[in-house]
User: Fold these one by one.
Assistant:
Number 1:
Amino acid sequence: MCGFRQWNKGRRIELADAEAMSYIAKHSVISQPVAVSRLGQAGEQLTVQIVAEEIPCAFRYNGFSHAVMMVTPDDLEDFVFGFSLTEGIIQEASDIRSFRVSDENGAIIANVELVPASLHRFLASRRVRQLQGRTSCGLCGVEDLKDIRRPDRRLSKEQPLTPDAIASAIRHVRDFQPLSRGTRAAHAAAWVDRSGNIAAIREDIGRHNALDKLIGARLRQSTLHGEGFCLITSRCSYEMAQKAIAAGIGTLVSISAPTAYAVRTAQSAGMALYSLSGDGEHLLYTNRSSSEALHDVKET
């Protein structure tokens, strides 16, 4: 069975980049040293670089196959709960009776046992993803367009974030990302309190996976609906907005810009969606003034 490591989530790790590489290199489950040729003005030099690991993870619910995702093999317990929630298979942590994560021929098998009501709901709407889920796509293997949309959900309106809270979270998030600092190959999703302090974070090679892991961690800790907001270090596509909405997250901040579909999805659910402009200013895409401004532009 894979050796699973637990980071000190929400605790700042005071490491320089070189030290971060050394730190994560000790955890061979999530990273591997690779010999590379450095090509520069001094000619070719053989060196060693730490690269992030990725492993296929197959989900089986009560013996029924559902999906295969490429994942960083860490925090897999959180991934099981978060993925199951955002896929619409469970509604709360107690819907999972038990689960077992095992290593099988270099792949991860997540065997999940659902309680009877959840199993019935899963089988009634079961869709098997026919393709392997890539780390970059949250919709791979979906067979029909009707499977893209989840049931409509309206979130409770939250108080606007302060610019200082957003700036503080973005300024410090990398301090909590040893895998990213060491490999330059990982995304992160963080839970931030309304003062801008990072309370929890998860990393993964896949941005969807990182968000699922964060959602799963908070679901398992019964803190999913606590005060604060979610920060993602990637762009906000439709799938990222949909996952946040499925988890009841009322405010999402993405470091990179959202897509138009993500904005429409957030607006329809009442989720506040923030991002950064090219010059680093904070943008709120989903308030009434934004919609009115767009209407004025179209009228001119």
Note: The two ends are 63 Å apart (CA to CA).
Number 2:
Amino acid sequence: MMQINIRNILVEIEKTPLDPAVGIRLALLWEESGKTYYGSLITPNKSITPHYHNEGDELYFIIKGHGIMRIDEQEFSVSDGDFFIVPAKAVHQLINTSDEEMLAVFACDKEHLQGDRFIVEL
């Protein structure tokens, strides 16, 4: 019989220390074939520090909450169920503009958090 490992994304995020570079907890949910999948809970009226990656696109999926996604010079409203791709080299910042937590999952190359993340001052 196949073994299935069921975990709770909120529990995984709670167990994960704050990543000081971007100001959120980045819980590693799954890693396979060079891709990594992370969960993050962004507190009300907070944001991820603006940054970019030289290699590989990054997929975001907003599970719960709403806010603004900045990609280079553009801003997009995002909310429950939205998903989008941030291209390599694009400066991006996810902002929770609500009074409730925002839950997001994103997928990226393994290197994104291990040397291919460059913080930007806006």
Note: The chain has a mean pLDDT of 93.
Number 3:
Amino acid sequence: MKQELANITAGQSINDTGSMLIGTGLALASMILIPAFAGRLGLGDSVVGALRIALMKASSKAIRGRSAQK
């Protein structure tokens, strides 16, 4: 029984780490990469803002998604 609980806990820790990495990557993309690409492509500020908001929401969902399933 203890071994089963240890395996479940270890699996949840790995899943939490993965979701944290995905969320961090999306946040990084929204803060740095999107404005850089938008400036290069000549996109308007409103489009850049909308893309950043969408990526930040996705980042938040990625991080909260695993902890909400526990």
Note: Residues 2-68 form one domain.
